[in-house]
Amino acid sequence: MPRFQVKQTEPLKKPCRVKSPCVGVCSTSTVSSVWCCGCNRHYLDIIRWNQYTQTEKIEAMWRAVEHRKLKTEGKVDDHSKYSYTGDNKGFNIND
Predict the structure, then answer these.
(1) What is the 3-state secondary structure of 4-33?
(2) pLDDT per residue over 37-47, tens digit each?
(3) pTM of the model
(4) pLDDT tens for each residue of 23-81
(5) Cα(16)–Cα(31) distance, rounded to whole angstroms?
(6) Nearest to 41 by CA among 63, 25, 58, 74
């Protein structure tokens, strides 16, 4: 299927919003888990979601995707306490 480029000719009528990735399967409270097994967000990202700017929400989503990837690769689990480097280089799982 061909791709078409669309040029925006007028400003957006309303701002774009990052929706919560919550899928209603919250379980950060089970046995000291720090990552939700439903949406893969860190518990602090879940708590602070409504105060985050759109940029911070995008960064939180990126962390969730990276956590899911590391979990799929068997490098971490939902109880893993590792740090985000904050420089778009990913996580430091050796903490």
Answers:
(1) CCCCCCCCCCCCCCCCCCCCCCCCCCHHHC
(2) 888 888 888 88
(3) 0.67
(4) 887 765 556 678 888 888 888 888 899 999 988 898 899 889 988 898 899 888 777 77
(5) 36
(6) 63
pLDDT at residue 51, rounded to an integer: 93
Closest listed residue to residue 35, CA positions, set 3, 75, 68, 62? 68
Which residue has 């996580």 as its token pair? 91
Count how many Cα atoms sit within 13 Å of the Cα of residue 6 in the half-sphere of its side chain: 4
What CA–CA distance (Å, rounded) separates 60 from 44?
10
Q: Which residue has the tokens 């971490």?
A: 76
**Nearest-angstrom CA–CA distance, 38 and 27:** 7
Measure the N-to-C terminal CA separation of the chain; round to a whole number of Å.
46
Burial letters for 51-63: b for 16+ Cβ neighbours within 10 Å, e otherwise? eeeeeebebbbeb
